[in-house]
Amino acid sequence: MVGYFDTETLNKALGALVLCREIKSYYIDSGLVSWLNIIFSLTVD
Questions:
Q1: Around 40, how many Cα atoms within 13 Å sit in the side-chain half-sphere?
Q2: Based on the structure, what is the number of domains in the chain?
């Protein structure tokens, strides 16, 4: 029972970590894209 609980907790912690990284990389990527779009539109204008 204890081992099962530990595994469950570990899985949840790992899942939260992965999710956090996914969200962070998503925001960084979209931020980069919008920044590039701004630069591109400025150079085009």
A1: 6
A2: 1
Amino acid at residue number 42: L
Q: Measure the CA angle with vertex 28, ends 21 and 41; round to 5°.
A: 165
Q: For residues 43 and 45, give the distance between their C-alpha atoms in angstroms, rounded to a whole number.
A: 5
The CA distance from 45 to 38, in Å, is 11
Encoded tokens for 42: 């400025």
In this predicted model, what pLDDT tens digit does every residue of 5-38 receive, in sequence order?
688 888 999 999 999 899 899 888 899 889 889 8
Rounded distance between C-alpha atoms, residue 41 and residue 35, angstroms: 10
Range of the domain at 45: 1-45
Q: How far is CA 43 from the centre of its chain?
A: 30
